[in-house]
Design goal:
membrane, 422 residues, Growth Hormone, Chain: A, transmembrane transporter activity, mainly alpha, two-stranded antiparallel sheet, single chain, MFS_trans_sf, MFS_spinster-like
Length: 422
Amino acid sequence: MAESVTKPAAGVARGATVALVLLTAMNFVNYLDRYILPAVQEQIKGEFHLSDNQIGSLTLWFMVAYVAASPVTGWLGDRFPRKPMIVIAAIGIAAMNFFTASVHDYMSLNLRHAALGIGEASFGIFAPSLLADFYADDQRNRVLTIFNLSLPFGAAMGVEAGAWIGAHHGWRMSFIASAVPGLLVAILIAVFMREPKRAVVEGKAKADKGSVVSLLRNPAYLCAILGYSAVTFSLGGISWWMPSFLHRFAGYSIEAAGGVMGPIIVVAGIGGTALGGWIAQVWSRKTSKALYLVPAISAALTIPPAITLFFGPKGLLLPSLSLAIFLVFLGTGPVNAATLNAVPANLRATAMAGQLFALHIFGDMFSPKLIGIISDTSDLRHGLAATLVTFAIGAVIFFVGAKYAPELHHALPEGEETPQAA
């Protein structure tokens, strides 16, 4: 029987909790899959006889596909039900990981990694915009902080489990193992998750060309995505190369490097995400600028421990890594809430597509390759130092964005009912 999702008075739509749990679980799988490759890249480099430049190029082609898919998925997300597209994306991600077992040359690995980018781009656009339709403005920071808690946990599990499985069973088995949870979560989403009703803004239920162009004239939105892009340049480059850095400069084995990174990312990443979301939630009761100020402070404070990590004594390597990860994750929940709150309801999927496009064009599409190029000409320490500059740029952009932060609302707007099979 078909039924509609109804909205209670508290600013939370029916079915919201189930959607949050399932999409957070899929986000965990999403980042687990993404961080399998950094965990085993030293093994892949040895088998295929690759340079650091070529290893960095794997992320480049992943991001090329990711960015190319974003405008299409954004367009689809603002016009069609997102639940079936999320299920298709989740199954596609699992399939790409499973088929990695058949990869035996560098070009095939590049193609496989690029195909994975299409699935991840689709989920990364559909899921936050769908969650935004379940919750009112002032609830989204809390909800997206919970959603983003899966980022450090998934990344940690990807690095640690990938390194352990790779060391004991070969790097291909790491990818096969990561395909299983993604398929299971896709099935659960298909069976249990509802499609929320989509809000109507000024009589429009869908995006048009004029409203999309308006995003480019929206300073609150632009500062949110450009500041996040600068931080993503740094975070993407550091996360990609840190297992190799620990292996080369701290003397860890590949398995031990993953074993060190996993717990640090879990404890520091989740702790930073949770604390940053809580600070922004409390602070935003006094000013909506908090959604920009927390990411700004987060980026600025990350610079000192990052310098110590790259160039300090070996004895301070792990403490500075832990502190840097904790600080950089303070802004992950608030910045996504800032992006969604800066745009009208009929443009949420398009806005997320624009965010992902910017994050990777100006962020982590080129940072692993650039770091690899610098590493080939000097060493990995100096390659990683490039990320210090973009942390500073991100902090400045977020501080500017606080000036344009829109006011927060406490109720869901009226919208059309979207039929969804029970």
